[in-house]
Specification:
37% of the residues are buried. The chain is mainly alpha-helical. The strands form two sheets. It has a two-stranded antiparallel ribbon. A two-stranded parallel ribbon has the order 3-4.
């Protein structure tokens, strides 16, 4: 019997057909899940996280100590750059806590997430959790994934055709402006966090608001107490700018430039996660730099899988997708950014015309 198809929007040059006559929903994923469990890849790894979080904590303490020792000096800009990397690693730690990769129980996961995200990073754990949960449920789905909602950037030609005002202007040149805009991402996360405190979906607005205020009292208080106003502002610019670029360099390669799912498209769980995600090769350095999120396909299939298990899971998943005939995309770090920027340029083409 011939297969009827629906189209999933990708970059302007390609589209992926999807079979409407599927196997029983979820059966393909169930088999993959069974293989992961048999391989022991779903077990918690307390020693790994003790060492990793301990190293990040020592790095944070080292940055604070260096800041205190150097005093009012332009050498503090090097400390600001180091702090950006540490903040990026704290963000990855908060991510793993949120997915219960560290603790199996909700309460310690939330306590750790509130401490790391709100107090240390200045980002609302509750707001980010709500946003990220919706992303995981429907990655690259227009109208359902908040990460591809048209804001300043547009992620599909459909969005470009409807863009007005600033998004329309930025959309024309968004590939060139992408990394400059990332320098504002750290500030945007904090601004969105404070804004979200008024949302009915926030479970602990008073607690999170208190932690966020405490973070910025310590952050700005320390900077403007030790540094002159000019040097303090320069520190903030370097720190927040590089922090935003780091976060964007970790998260952008995962889905940007991969298929965009339109309303009405039917995909089972395994295909919805695999087809919209991209893995990034690169060995131990990329693993550490991206905190395991370079195994984005496996992370989306098994969000609570501990980071050190993802490399073995990648081999199992790639082979299983080959058995099913499901496209599995993996590329290098630089190539992943080229694909993402090519997609941004392609979807913005109607605006330039």
């Amino acid at each position: 019997m011939a297969d009827s198809t629906v189209l999933i929007e990708t970059s302007p040059a390609r589209a992926i057909p999807e079979r409407e006559e599927e196997r029983e929903r979820g059966s393909d994923f169930s088999e993959l899940s069974r293989r992961m469990a048999e391989a022991g890849l779903l077990r918690r790894r307390p020693l790994y996280y003790t060492v990793r979080f301990g190293a990040v904590g020592l790095a944070l303490a080292g940055v604070v100590a260096a800041f205190a020792v150097l005093g009012d000096s332009w050498a503090q800009l090097a400390v600001a750059a180091a702090a950006a990397v540490v903040f990026g690693q704290l963000g990855l730690a908060a991510h793993d806590l949120a997915h219960r990769q560290v603790f199996s129980r909700r309460r310690p996961s939330e306590a750790g997430g509130l401490l790391v995200a709100d107090l240390l990073l200045g980002m609302s754990y509750g707001w980010w959790m709500n946003k990220h949960t919706r992303h995981h449920a429907n990655p690259n789905h227009e109208g359902k994934d908040p990460d591809v909602s048209p804001d300043i950037l547009v992620w599909s030609r459909r969005q470009a055709s409807r863009a007005r005002g600033l998004p329309r202007f930025v959309g024309k040149h968004q590939a060139a402006l992408f990394f400059p805009l990332l320098t504002l991402e750290g500030l945007n996360l904090s601004f969105s966090s404070f804004k979200a405190l008024r949302s009915p979906s926030m479970k602990r607005p008073v607690l999170e608001g208190t932690l966020l205020v405490a973070h910025f009292v310590l952050y700005f208080g320390g900077l403007f107490t030790v540094l002159s106003p000019g040097r303090a502002l320069a520190f903030i610019a370097v720190h927040q700018g590089l922090f935003g670029i780091y976060l964007g360099s970790v998260f952008a390669p995962n889905h940007k430039g991969m298929p965009m799912i339109e309303e009405g498209t039917r995909l089972d769980f395994l295909r919805r996660q695999v087809l919209t995600s991209r893995n990034v090769r690169g060995g131990a350095f990329v693993d550490a730099f991206m905190g395991g999120l370079n195994y984005q396909i496996e992370h989306h299939l098994f969000p609570s899988m501990p980071t050190p298990a993802l490399a073995r899971a990648q081999v199992i998943t790639e082979r299983y997708c080959a058995e099913l005939g499901v496209p599995y995309h993996q590329t290098g770090l630089l190539a992943s950014h080229r694909e993402a920027l090519r997609h941004l340029r392609g979807v913005g083409e109607p605006l330039r015309d």
